[in-house]
TrEMBL record:
Residues 10-75 form the PRC-barrel domain. Residues 122-134 have a biased composition (Low complexity). Residues 111-134 are annotated as: Disordered. GO terms for cellular component: plasma membrane light-harvesting complex. GO terms for biological process: photosynthesis, light reaction. It comes from Saccharopolyspora gloriosae. This is Sporulation protein YlmC with PRC-barrel domain. Pfam families: PRC.
Amino acid sequence: MIGQREALHLFGCEVFDPAGHRIGIVGQLFLDEATEQPAWITVQTGLFGTNESFVPLDGAAFDGDTLTVSVLKETVRQAPHVRLDDGDLMLEQEHALYLYYGIEYGVTPAEPEPVRQEDAPAEPAEPAEQGELPPEYVEAVRLKLRRWVAAT
């Protein structure tokens, strides 16, 4: 686990996947709101580092000069694109990243009580669109990630 002391040295270091392929350079760091521990980084990729991709720090190893993450380079390249110039992450963007990388996210809302036959609506409710968060989930969850800006 990478702690806050190591996190100070992550900015600008090279990032590699488990196979040793270079992914890019650490751009930004995001803390888990509940634990205050480093949880995600952005990696500057592409020509001249013009793209930034989110990468989880779960299972990452830092040796003082380089960071080796637990996901493959191709996985990072195909991750959902999140624009960072719009400020903090929106709930849907954050959820999409956790879902893409297969990381448990937030709290699961309580199971609704079964509807009795006499209380059932005449028309069935419309199903949520693919990728859309159900309203009860949105209410039960709050943003987990907070951008960390290191003062220099």
